[in-house]
């Protein structure tokens, strides 16, 4: 993947190419940003630039090297990513077991999310991780000499999913890697990476992609007219993956909307109504059976929904893009209940629920507790 194929972010491209051209390539770098901002495509383009000795316009005298990157088959390029057992691998899963699926995923969805990857593996009801077995594989693969006598590059996608044992195992290797070995760690939440690893990495933070860039890409790749492309670009909020999901009318969004509106309606009725409490408990039980990654994705969807309601309540209509399809539900009627007196508390409760589910808390208890708290918060009055 060439830098020219990565959307926007010219300042980051310039930084990476300039340091590479000057031979000042840090041995450990951490790319931080949302998956839809292009952290993975940028890392692959950077690896190609280094391994193929590309310069300036990215053309080089090594076309065979560049061609091998089209299917990610360069022998000195290594990938690590979160995995879990599935129908194919029953125990001790590591990234090398899933390279065929990984290459297909990157080709189809280079801006895809961790949840998209889990769906590709059929493990969306599990939590993948980068475990100690993976760390041993990394140590083994990097102990060998490079195939072409130059750099070896290890891309660790979603490095924030490394568990403590794996992180401690890799700490010394990241601090003092073999000669001409480059670690490119990619993460959405850098705080989940242990401080001792973060302190050894040069951190590069990725901003959202500009609306104009997403608009131009949608017109060119999806054949959309300018007005429709601009509307999608605004709704995507700087995330190209969101833009593609909005175009495809992803079915999970419809399910999430149904869950959210059922939840909200039950929470409104629950104040002083014992029967509605049972509805909230039933709702919590239903969602608890959906798998942790689905639960986390849904809670993030809820955060976005509440923010959209807040924007509408405060007349920032130009930033409102959600258009619920559920009969009888109007965002403009719901919006007045989300305001400055409760939005911070609602956001905090959702963040806490995400935190506990991420750490294998009992989903039924977490979601029931969240529901009861939401009942009180929705009825909070503005002072």
Structural notes for this entry:
By secondary structure, the chain is of the alpha/beta class. The chain folds into 2 domains: 3-205, 3-Layer(aba) Sandwich (Rossmann fold); 250-378, Zinc Finger, Delta Prime, domain 3, CATH 1.20.272. The protein contains 17 helices and 5 strands. It has a 5-stranded parallel beta sheet with strand order 2-3-4-1-5, sandwiched between helices. Strand 3, helix 7 and strand 4 form a beta-alpha-beta unit. The relative contact order is 0.10. The model has no long low-confidence stretch (mean pLDDT 87).
Please identify which CATH superfamily of the largest domain we are dealing with. P-loop containing nucleotide triphosphate hydrolases
Q: How many DSSP-defined strands?
A: 5
Q: Which CATH class of the largest domain is shown?
A: Alpha Beta
Lateral strand order in the biggest sheet: 2-3-4-1-5
What count of domains describes the coordinates? Answer: 2
CATH architecture of the largest domain: 3-Layer(aba) Sandwich
Count of DSSP H/I helices:
17
- Can you give the mean pLDDT? 87
Secondary-structure content class? alpha/beta
